[in-house]
Prior knowledge:
The chain is mostly helical. Helix content is 67%, strand content 0%.
Amino acid sequence: MSSSLKKYTPYLLFTFAVLLYLNTINHGYVLDDFSVIKENFVVKSGTEGISTIFKTPYRYGYGFQTGSLFRPIPLSIFALEWQLFPDQPWFAHLINILLYGFATVVLYQLVSKWANAAIALITALLFIAHPLHTEVVANIKSLDEILSFLLLLLILKFYHSYHHSKDKKQLWLAIALFFAAMLTKESSITFIAVIPTTLYFFENVSLKKALSSVSLFLIPLIPYFIMRQNALGALTSNSPVAAIDNLLVGINDVSELIATKFYLVGLYLYKLVLPLNLSSDYSIQHLSAINVSNPLFLISLVVVILLIILTVKQFKKRSLIGFGLLFFAITFSISTNLLFTIGTHFGERLLFIPSVSFCLIIAYFINKLISSNKLKPIGITICVGILLAYSGKTISRNQAWESDLVLYSTDIKTVPNSARINYSLGLEIMKEKAVKAVNETDRVNYFVESEGYLKRATEIYPAYSDAFGNLGLLKYRTKDFATAERYYLKAIELNPKNAIVLSNLGAIYFEMKQYEAARNTYSRALAANPNMADANANMGATLATLGQLQGSIPYFTKAIELNPTNVQNYYFLGITYQNLGNPAKAKEYMDLYNGMK
């Protein structure tokens, strides 16, 4: 590669990455963007919420939820983005795109230290274009993936500089970035194993010395685990993983469990090479359990064994292939479900960092072809062909991430037997089409379409409490209260602590003027989730209707605290104070109501 081309390569790579994802900049919020940003009251409080973010679980701002995730740095960035450009997703999409472009430049610079410039360039180009990355870059929430990847690259870059210069500033900067990486995404803890791996393969350091050289990287673990303990109340979560999220938890047969785990690893490898039929969800029954006699298990097992053997052989040779295989094993280890069960059985985003290995190994072989005078045209053709195919697929797939409705409508064609996609599409059709329809005929047709997908979700996964709950909501909105009640009771039977369904069931009893039944049901909803704004407001309304005005005030007040933007609660509280003969308080809340409506 000429020196002039090397000079401009970082700019060209950055431009390529930005252009490839530019068609996502006007997209809205999708999937977890709502719980993490759009409907997260802590994030929406802007920079004032950052102190709370560092002391609470990841989804605390979404109805005071608990959990096992502690990722304060990406949440703080979202809070800052909201502070600067409130409720403007284009800005957050732009940040994702720019960070992705910057990360690929650092990737190129880092690989240039490990291999020749051609391999570094091809690796970066393949990484940029790989379609599996669309979920990460196009989904705002996945900033945590991009940022943790960038931090890993910078850690390796600074530690490489320290190894050669012995400048301790570089070392302590790398350690500080490792701490930041863990506060960005929990799986970043695997980076501590990547560091000695790079030393062993590229710095001719013995394995023993390489391992001992990173002992200082254990220091950030102490403050990290203290912060995590304080935020979550425990280092790990005791909350069970639902079968709808990870099909492995529903498998009781040990041989079947092992077979399914290896099959899923094989599927990951397949998607890495051939990123076809992409989807935002792979829940049951699109993917289901298999037994040890299934050819998919046998093929996956053989592939995994061969890769392990190859890794061991290449490890001894300290080859680029060996590094790539070991890098993949380290960064993908947590996501495999082989070591322990995580919150999902399959997700394209989980291959984001491990995909570096694939790109590096493919770049190595393409460079071998290009370096040969006879095979050079073949190497160039293969490289260009892969880049064109991947880029075209990426640009096309980006369009699906425009909104929840577009995403689910697209993915239902790929995973028609996914319980969650059927459920999510049915819900979106109800919210975005049926409820908003002006024409009554269209409204009825949309409700029918929505009901079809929701019913399909319950057929695929009969224990789907949320699906039954939203069938109840659909029937409530079409004034079929008897059927709505039946669906709600089924949802509660499956999940007695489903606060949303309990609150919705209370609404039916209230509508039917069965106020005592409504009060009892709202009490159950609040017992399941005392921080549910709607349930608090509904309980307040029910008590007020029963003549218990003084008793309704704490519930209306709590509802306002939980959701300050709901103007109706100010009105109800104002009317309540007026009926209690407290004109000063009544005026205070009516003024707030009039000022906000």
